[in-house]
Amino acid sequence: MPANKEKASAELVLAGALVLDADGRLLEGPHDIVIRGGKIAAVRPAGSDVARGNSGASGGPQAPEVVDCSGCVVTPGLVILHTHAPMVLFRGFAEDMSIDDWFNKRIWPYESRLTPDHIEAGARLAVVEMVEHGVTAFADHYFEADRIADVVLDTGIRADLAPTVFGLGEGFAERADAAAELIARRRDDDPRLTFRMGPHAPYTCPPPAMEHIVRRARELGVGLHLHVSETRAQVEESRRREGRTPFAAVAAAGGFELPVIVAHGLWVEEEDLTLVGPDTWFAVSPKTYLKLAMGEGSLWRLWGDPRLRVAAGTDGAASSNTLNPLEQVRLWALLGKHASGRADRFTLEDAWRVLMSGHRAFGRGTGAVQPGWEADLVVWDLEQPNTAPVHDVLAAIIYSADARNVRDVLVSGRFLKRDFKVVAVDVAEALRQVEEAARAVVARGPGRATVTY
Ligand SMILES: [Zn+2]
To answer: How far is CA 164 from CA 224, 238, 279, 436, in A?
Structure first.
């Protein structure tokens, strides 16, 4: 029995909405958005001929379901291009400590004791939180991707899952092959579910491991999702050990010939940008960089280089505490202004593009409020105390809005959040399961991590 009991209507009309598209421009006047078979069938000036339900090809006698969106703004959904969804289990569990202690004393030892049930519970609550914030798609990087895939199918959200592989120690080839087998087995489950190979990072996947994983990805015809050059120390260590940057290590293994999600890339160097491919996307999570004191990096300095394609990530809630891409993009813009000393740079339009570009990385026909595109949409209510009055819709969303303003969330025309309430998941049950899982994980105590940071 799927958790999300909402059925997509044969025909649904979001009526009388202002439409803000991925380019950050508002359509003139209110519009009706007609959704049929999960896709946007028409976007037309409000009030045309909605009530007659005569909008064409389906031709059925059924009147369309009309949802009043007057006074609201409809946009494409938000995308998280890098997270570790199950890590909500460790929200607030490793605070005010160095990145070394964060990994070595807290996260990796405790993570090593997680069970598949814990991971599934974490992933389900993560979906609740994401949907609250208007997220319609997320790219995940974690273990037990089978169980996360179950949650994706069950809830109705869209996801790209990268079963994570550490390339150190015994049996890396078997682990990589198991990840490839999972992808081959589940890739046709549902169009909402896609996969990539997920090597953890160059510093945990030495060249033979990285080459093996890239080979598997190429055989499957999928991309990669991995951490690269997160800290200055990682870049220095890579230079010392291999005489090249982490980006160069990925390139040497042929990685950038594939579509790639680079988690963070905070310390990318200018010459690294000559190595990345046309389908390489940087998923940035400034809240994590600030909390873990990872330094100023180069992303803001290199901003504007067309080879640096930036999208919003959140990282896991163990480091970022929230799964809210809007908060990340807000910090991204503020840090850019601060670092450059230029208040007129890192504009609202730039921030909106960063928020929307995850759709292009996904490449699944989402990310536009136009006929033919998937109906992965958010209905924003900005007539609320935290956002009113709305002089500028983009400013209201980028700098003021939060989950309170997210009225409805749809993926392929099906509601995941409706009238301010998440309907994709039994929220009380998801909370209960996560509380139980988190208690069990802490009670078990730390295990022995296979890697050290
Ligand atoms: Zn990460």
So the answer is: 10, 21, 20, 25
